Amino acid sequence: MKKQRIFPFLPAAVLSLSLLLSGCDTRQTAPSAEDDGVLTIAATTYPVYELLETLTSNMDHVELTLVVDQQISCLHDYTLTVDDMRTLEHADVILINGAGLEAFMADALSAADAPVIDCSKGIDLLPATGHDDHDHSAAEDEEDHYDPHLWLDPERYMQMMDNAARGLSDLGYGNYDDYRAVMLRSCAHIDERFLTWKDRFDTLPQEKKLLITFHDGFSYLADAYGLTILRAIEEEAGNEASAKDIKEIVELIREYDIPMIFVEENGSDATAKAIQRETGVAIGTLSTLMSPDDSTDYVQRDEDNLKTIYEGLSREDLPEDEK
């Protein structure tokens, strides 16, 4: 069954009117909880920060801050720094990804005076893979069985944006209709690219839609484009793939004639290279879009992932005009 879309394609006349309205002077001044007249919104992770940049683009007197602003692959072993704590302390409102991603900062969020908006509210969550052997605290166990990388599915990313808009509006920080005018413009572009890539992956036979990843965060990407993750290995310091894992992956590559396996750009590729030496399989690099990047936006980085996967699985380079 096709997933329900928040921002389906509108008739051309309606979309044109929406864009016209959003281009009018709808700039609003957000109320602030601080005496300096500036509304400080803290985003725990970069995907949330990026969607907030879109939502608040027409708002005066808004300062966006990012809590985890480092190049990072996985937050399971992350420890809040003094600067991170200061960012949370100075925020008027805090937006989190949710789905367990911020479990490591639960105490800090509970101690914060600012209200917290959960961008994963009401979104269909997928089970996590690849963390079976991790030793997490009891505080993490309840939510750790969900994959929190929601933003890698464009439709769920748009739902996150809508949750953020509703949350800010409910707190009196802006009007939801104004946020929606901005979302119509931004999400129409995201939606268009999603459908283009969905159609492209739909042309592949099912036996070419099989992924082996060395990061456990790509379940939503696979779900969005009809791909199947055969195996996901999460390698961290002290938790490298075992000899049994490597043997099973080698067997999967040979059984299914897998042309490419995928590592995460900020993760380890040692095991993948060992498997490459044994099987000759190619290695592709994907991004979880977690780390700050001022050079490209969400759509471009998402397309880079999809191009890498499509060309790797199909064994075909896309024409230049389709890249």
Report what the structure shows.
This protein has 323 residues and is α/β, with parallel strands linked by helices. Helix content is 40%, strand content 12%. The protein has 11 helices and 10 strands. The strands form 4 sheets. It has a 4-stranded parallel β-sheet with strand order 4-2-5-6, sandwiched between helices. β5 (93-96), α4 (106-111) and β6 (116-118) form a beta-alpha-beta unit.
Largest sheet: spatial strand order: 4-2-5-6
Shape: globular
Low-confidence stretches: 1-6, 9-27, 131-140
Kindly state the mean pLDDT as a whole number?
Answer: 86
Structural class: alpha/beta
Radius of gyration: 21 Å
- Strand composition percent: 5-15%
Order of helices and strands: HEEHEEHEHEHHHEHEHEHEH
State the major sheet. 4 strands, parallel
Tally of helical runs: 11
The percent range for helix content is 40-55%
Notable features of this structure?
four-stranded parallel beta sheet; alpha/beta; 323 residues; disordered N terminus; 11 helices
In short:
With 323 residues, the protein is an alpha/beta fold. Helix content is 40%, strand content 12%. The radius of gyration is 21 Å and the shape is globular.
What are the SSEs and their pairings?
Layout: H1 12-22, E1 28-29, E2 39-43, H2 46-55, E3 59-60, E4 62-66, H3 82-89, E5 93-96, H4 106-111, E6 116-118, H5 138-141, H6 154-170, H7 176-202, E7 210-213, H8 219-224, E8 228-232, H9 243-256, E9 260-264, H10 270-279, E10 282-286, H11 298-314
Parallel strand pairs: 1-3, 2-4, 2-5, 5-6, 7-8, 9-10
